[in-house]
Design goal:
The protein is α+β, with helices and mostly antiparallel strands. The protein is built from 20 helices and 21 strands. It is about 30% helix and about 20% strand.
């Protein structure tokens, strides 16, 4: 694992260190406590598609390969003994077969040995479970080709059934046979058979990608997960989150074992003393969820927290304090936007008032009107947000693609605060009816996320001054509530963001713009139909299918511009990262692909 060798990488960043003179006593040396905000959605690595959940999964489960230090392009073996390459023959000459040699002598924390069959089962189970709006599209696309985003695409192609829940046992057997052809086992070797060369494939199965986690087949089946047969496909596909057998339990090969998950309050891990690699330095690792900044700050200063989440606007309150180190300028492939829901779910929805265009609410198609979206986009003070909230440590987004990925153009068009243009578009919306009647809606953020709250307050302030008939209520809710509501489509608009699954522009245009993408689901069927009609889907498919870099650049530049021209979402910013911790913490290093803290890499050493 060479976990000690990455410490030097932090020297490449801007670091401010403030410590007491002489030796500093380490508080609770065998326990590491990280205090952050929000809660988690699930513990199932095939269901999780948020950083809160993935951060927990990262501690317990392992993948075939890992990133080397802070690099997002260089890999080291993990559960595989080698990183596949053309040079070692583990990638075929045509770039479509990737073979992983599975490490021997590795055990899951229950003592079961890791086998190649566990690896095959893990990926097949993910592809069969394939929950709506989940991450498994990243397996289907390379294995079956552009345009395949889930099990439904395969069932439609193989047996003509668009809903996997309606498969007969005979049809399910045909589908399973096709899936099994894509992942084969030969002794201790597992080979993935891709539909075409797919350059980011290694990133998709690397550490940090929860969907690449390796499960214990025997244990998973005992819990009620897919039993490995065709007849169980229908029951295992797209489960309700809380009814998912692995929703609240984990068992992996990693350096830590989950002992307690009190969602919204705390998570406790204990060291896996039978871990196949070097043992972790801490016997216990804890994540505490504390939304209040003042409490997190006090815990850090007292030494009750070893590391905390410190928003940029509050960070100066701990910089300069004894025993605290702050690292800034961390490269992050991440963005923040506000997703407009083009087809709001109205049933049981208490975020849209009356649900009508009558001044007391908003209709389902409120944001399907391009003038409404443009009016909102002109009602946000981007520069103030960058300067006052991000403290200058961010850049304005120019669409979903972030700097420095292919297709990003620092001179492309962007929106700016312009209330005259905002009023112009509000007057045009709904043929003038919106301006005359007004509207009322809730703008929701996840509690403790102060940047999102500030963004919501900013929109409320500017929009309400344009027309006294415009009313926006800003509400904070728990992360799990927020995530569930956005997935169900009840939020009129939801603040979102994307931490790259893999460092390629495709990983930003597919989830944000493709009709089968993650955020397309939050915009409803109206957006999906529109994206197909204007050619967005075709452009995305061509972009990932071609190896011509010049053509890829043209495609991603065009998609980036379309996202602005049509105000598909409100594109806010690309922040840089920071880390705030006690000076006794050693071994921390950044990696843009890691979903959160890595307890295994760190130690606590007296200064």
């Amino acid at each position: 694992m060479q976990k000690k060798l990455v410490v030097f990488l932090t020297l490449l960043l801007v670091v401010s260190v403030f410590s007491v003179a002489g030796a500093q006593e380490v508080k609770n040396p065998n326990t590491f406590t990280y205090v952050t905000i929000g809660d988690q959605s699930t513990l199932d690595p095939h269901f999780a598609y948020d950083t809160g959940s993935s951060e927990l999964i990262y501690q317990v489960y392992e993948t075939l390969i890992d990133y080397e230090g802070s690099s997002v392009q260089d890999f080291v073996p993990l559960l595989s003994t080698e990183v596949p390459s053309f040079e070692n023959g583990l990638i075929s000459e045509d770039g479509t077969d990737y073979t992983f040699v599975i490490r021997e002598g590795v055990e899951f924390s229950n003592g079961n040995p890791l086998t190649a069959e566990d690896v095959k089962y893990s990926f097949l189970r993910g592809m069969i479970m394939d929950r709506s709006g989940g991450p498994i599209w990243m397996l289907y696309e390379p294995l079956f080709g552009a345009g395949y985003a889930g099990l439904a695409d395969v069932t439609a192609d193989v047996v003509g059934v668009e809903d996997p829940k309606k498969l007969t046992d005979e049809q399910a057997a045909e589908v399973l046979a096709v899936l099994e052809e894509k992942i084969t086992v030969d002794g201790n070797k597992v080979t993935f058979h891709l539909a075409a060369p797919y350059p980011p494939f290694l990133n998709i199965v690397a550490k940090g990608a929860s969907w690449g986690s390796i499960l214990d087949k025997e244990w998973s089946i005992e819990q009620g997960a897919w039993d490995g047969t065709a007849t169980d496909i229908v029951a295992s596909h797209d489960p309700v989150k809380e009814e998912d057998p692995l929703f609240d339990k984990m068992l992996g090969t990693g350096p830590f074992i989950l002992t307690e998950w009190v969602n919204g309050d705390h998570v406790v891990f204990r060291r896996n003393d039978n871990y196949w690699g070097e043992l972790a330095n801490f016997k216990t690792a804890i994540i505490r969820n504390v939304d209040e900044w003042s409490t997190r700050k006090l815990m850090l200063l007292r030494g009750d927290a070893d590391m905390i989440y410190a928003p940029t606007q509050y960070r100066s309150q701990v910089e300069g304090e004894e025993g605290v180190v702050v690292t800034t300028g961390i490269p992050v492939l991440q963005n923040m936007n506000m997703v407009f829901n083009w087809e709001i779910t109205t049933e049981g929805n208490n975020y849209i008032g009356s649900g009508k265009l009558d001044g007391k609410g908003i209709p389902s198609n409120f944001f399907a009107d391009e003038d409404v979206r443009k009016a909102f986009s002109y009602s946000f003070n981007y520069q103030a947000f960058l300067e006052q909230v991000r403290m200058g440590e961010a850049i304005q987004l120019r669409g979903p693609i972030v700097d420095p990925l292919l297709g990003y153009n620092e001179n492309s068009d962007v929106y700016s605060l312009d209330l005259e243009k905002a009023e112009e578009h509000f007057r045009k919306a709904f043929g003038g009816e919106l301006w005359e009647k007004g509207f009322t809606m809730d703008l929701v953020y996840n509690s403790g996320n102060d940047p999102r709250k500030t963004a919501a307050d900013m929109l409320k302030s500017y929009i309400e001054r344009i027309n006294p008939k415009f009313n926006i209520n800003v509400r904070g809710v728990q992360w799990s509530t927020y995530l569930d509501a956005s997935v169900r489509g009840t939020l009129p608009a939801s603040f979102g963001g994307w931490l790259a699954d893999f460092p390629d522009p495709h990983n930003f245009v597919q989830p944000f713009l493709d009709s089968a993408g993650y955020y397309a689901g939050r915009r409803g069927d109206a957006y999906k139909k529109w994206a197909e009609e204007v050619g967005i889907n075709d452009l995305i498919s061509e972009g990932i299918s071609t190896t011509d870099t010049a053509r890829r650049k043209e495609i991603y530049t065009q998609l980036q511009q379309m996202s602005i021209d049509h105000a598909i979402d409100l594109w806010i910013d690309q922040p840089t990262g920071s880390n705030t911790r006690r000076t006794w913490v050693e071994g921390w290093y950044p990696n843009a692909m890691r979903p959160g803290v890595d307890f295994y890499s760190m130690d606590k050493v007296a200064q």
